[in-house]
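Database export, one record per block. Field names are fixed; values are copied verbatim from the stored entry.
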Amino acid sequence: MDFIKTGKALVVFSFFLFPSLNSPALQSSEPVDSQTKLMKSLIQSDTTGYLMLSSCARSLVSNAVKSGRFSEARKIVFDAFVKNALTISKDDFFSEETQRTRVLSDVFRLIELCEAVKDEAWEHQDAISWILSSEQKLSIFINLISQNDDFVEAIDIIEKIIKYDAKECDQFSNLIFALSVVWDQKRPFTHSQVSTVSKLPVSKDIINRYEYFKLIFKKRRSKFYYKHLTATDLVYVVDTPMPVSELNWVYKNISGSLSKWGQKYSSIKYDYARLNIGQYTWAAYKGRYTLANILKQGGICVDQAYYATMTARAYGIPAMYFSGDGRNAGHAWFSYKKNRNSWAMDIGRYKSDNYTVGDGIHPQTNKRITDRDMELLYTRSNRQQSYKIAMLYVEIAKILSLERMRNKAESFCLRAIKLFPLKLEAWVFMETRYTYDKRWEQLFTLLQQKESAFRKFPDIVANTIRYQFRVLHLTGKHDEADLLLRRAKLKVRGGRDDLQRSIHLEHVNSLIFDKKYLKARKYMEKVLRSQKNEMMKLLNFLQKYLYVTAKSGQTSEAVEFIVPYINSLMSNVDSKSGKKSLRKCIVKAYQNNNDVKAAAQIKKKYSI
């Protein structure tokens, strides 16, 4: 065994010991058994060097994919993982213990993914082998792919690209990974204000998309050097729900510098004629919804934001489309990565209507993401080494919890929080544990600490306050809960009236739960009066008010309040669609009160 203890010799030995997936040695069970036995002893050995452990662990996955023996490989890796994880004593990403645990964590997760799809993993063994060909590729892919991704489809995309571009695929692995986790699902269109007949047909066309982005990075036509973009950055580049021909049009016809890309938004002439007639959808008479047509004919805010976002992505600039509700109407703007460390978040976001938050669709998960969420994701501290160690600690906690090593799992999450307080997943893990065990006092203390850690991120502060409120109510501390909400308005900073309304709704829901309907109605009326200046942004709150009063039989009181209230709002609302939406609330109030005649008169008068 002295020979095996020599790190350099072990690395050489590994090439003999672990042939590739396509080797004839793996066609029978005996070589697989002998290799698995040797790999097990090396992986679980205290004396195996880090490089050798990495090679052995990755080879074990290869053997498991070929033979289908995932459970056996999973147990080998898990036992070694637990043994290594519990020896980590320092917050040092480059320590021997930390590196060993990180590799085993990545391998364990890949085995779990392959085991879940079994036959599909075997059929895509070339792609899995390519991912396993280097520790860096494995780490990037495993940390990029999420539970929302279609693993089989992502692997299929990788396999198609590496077979197509065997010579250069290694140079563009980050691009390939980004394409695989974005295009593994059908791409939703960026916004809904385009007629069906005007939309261009979109196919996956993955090879041509890969070729396009590879070309702009190779020829340095992109606005970022490829080496300066992570796989996560590229997720916000390759999400282009339009034909590749549109990308080629941008490449041939559009130019500009990175620092001035925000001007692309205002370069689209605003179509006031459409606004004046209330034509908010790109209609068939305007032709196909192409970037060329938008540039030529102009458009409204959704078209400006779409054009700026897609031309940015076509030049390798991470960008996002956002829309939100303002005092008068909805609006759309865009954000883009302006340098290696930060994003320009508010291009085209007018201040006059107080658009408190913007909603977008995350390119990878297809789920809602706000522009404020993006600020947290891309805060500069996320690039720190401590963030990467905290990520590993959370992953360790998740794996340890699978074997009910709960105390150890919690200790790693608490270490993650101490090391990097903005690691949101660590807080969520602890909240889940405390809630499951009904450790209410510990949970409440944790939530107070979380509120303090994320004080610069009002969305998280508001969510945390709502969680605290529920805990206090659940434990019978109703007076403390009410006091918490009264103080919450001061804690939610940045003029976030939307978050303040969400906190008010939490209180309303608790009153309804306690069957205090009269108090709930009066409380909502007080909120509506205090936020009267927010006009159209109150629409959802008004609809909730109508629902509560209808369910509790307070319909005549609702009519008495809502008719003069909405009429007073109307004088300050310029948008025709906004006025129509508000009048619908009046109609609903009359209908709830069984006043069919009054409802019909409003509908007829205003063509509702």
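Remark 1: Residues 243 and 338 are 26 Å apart (CA to CA).
Remark 2: The radius of gyration is 28 Å.
End of record.
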